[in-house]
Amino acid sequence: MKKILLIGKQDEYLAEMNEYLHNFFRVLICNEETQNAPAMVRVVLPDLVMVILSGVYDVDMSIFTLLRDQYPRIPVLTLGSGSEYRNFSGVFGGASFENLLLPLGKEDVLMNICRRLNITLDQLRADPNAAASGAVPDYRKHVLVVDDNAMTLRNLKACLDTMYRVTLANSGTKAITSIGKDRPDLILLDYEMPVCDGRQTLEMIRSDEEIRDIPVIFLTSVQDREHIEAVLKLNPSGYLLKPPVQEKLIDTIESVLARR
């Protein structure tokens, strides 16, 4: 289910919006005590943040700078009048921020949320119960992450969940099985794994005509020149040193997918 972090003054409008959006999304509320919002963003990693500016004058600006500087790919919708938006415009920046002018009906808000999340309004209207249970089709690019370390898998999933549909596999053999069931658009593959390492896994992928063209980005924790040269000789679509920075990781994935 898509997650929305709803920030605003605890009033009737926020309560009505929360009740309405709960039919379609998992909604988490952060009221005017917005000092908790940055921590909520880091823990929850919402798919979208919505801020109701009306009546919120003492809002903690750190939530906006956090979203702008550390989570630029999370869409942010603000709801407020032109004057209310101008009060905060100095901390907004980038394509992720968009203001919707109030007054605005709940259906119009829902339509704009769907637009920012790449979900069609018709899908939600056709089966709201399925949407509420998380059964709305996910049309995002599918990334398979392969690593034998459980913590690494969790961290990479947290980094990518806002942008992609993510599947995890903790070994090369499980990765091949997963690919057969649900073909990914791209594979992040740990180079150093026991039993069936990244090189062997890539060889198995390339030996199968049906999946050999799936782009593979290697992840490696060894930084010496000889090791990197051995990785590059396998001609992957890219490689990254572990642990990858989220922005560099996503930029590399986007670059590889764009080439396809």
Structure characterization notes:
With 260 residues, the protein is an alpha/beta fold. It has two domains: 130 residues, Response regulator (Rossmann fold), CATH 3.40.50.2300; 118 residues, Rossmann fold (3-Layer(aba) Sandwich), CATH 3.40.50.2300. The chain has twelve helices and ten strands. The longest helix has 14 residues.
Compact summary:
The protein is α/β, with parallel strands linked by helices and 260 residues long. 43% of the residues lie in helices and 19% in strands.
**Radius of gyration, in angstroms, nearest whole number:** 21 Å
CATH C-level class of the largest domain is Alpha Beta
Q: How many discrete domains?
A: 2
| Quaternary status | single chain
Beta strands, count: 10
**Secondary-structure class:** alpha/beta
* Full CATH superfamily name of the largest domain: Response regulator
Instruction: Let me know the largest β-sheet.
Output: 5 strands, parallel
> Which stretches of 5+ consecutive residues score pLDDT under 50?
130-136
Helix content: 40-55%
Tell me which CATH architecture of the largest domain applies here: 3-Layer(aba) Sandwich
3D shape: elongated
Q: End-to-end span in angstroms?
A: 29 Å
**SSE order:** EHEHEHEHEHHHEHEHEHEHEH
Proportion of strand residues: 15-25%
- The number of helical runs is 12
The CATH topology name of the largest domain reads Rossmann fold
Mean pLDDT, all residues: 82
Going across the major beta sheet, what is the strand order? 2-1-3-4-5
